[in-house]
Write the structure tokens for this entry.
Amino acid sequence: MHKKFIALIVASAIAVAGVSASQARAADAHDILGGLAAIAIIGAAVNHYHKDKNRDRVSRQQKQVYVPPKAKHRDLRPLPRKVARYDLPQRCLRTYKGYSRTRPLLGTSCLNKHYKHSNSLPPQCKVGFWNGTKVSRAYEPACLRQKGYRVVFK
């Protein structure tokens, strides 16, 4: 309250000083307009200061953080069939001795067991390699990723 009073006193003092000085010089129109502009600028600055101060006070009082409730396993909804179809199980990802020690493949028998759309996987992503006794087949994850599939933890 006292800040508003002080701002009113300062603004009126500037207005009176501007008007009295302009009357002493025969009240030039530029001087009067200059005094009014100064009063308007000071009033706008005081108003802006008070708006910021009130906004900070309100935001500090009402600062509430939304905490979502913990979802239980039964509350989670499964992905739509169209989307879930392209999710490959991560448990089928493993390295094969005859192929590479650093690049894993998705095994066909594991995919048949844990992925119900395994018969619709693209055949160009299937690679064959010699495991020491016979030719084994598995899917290349990078090729499948290019076709829209992804390996996820299921």
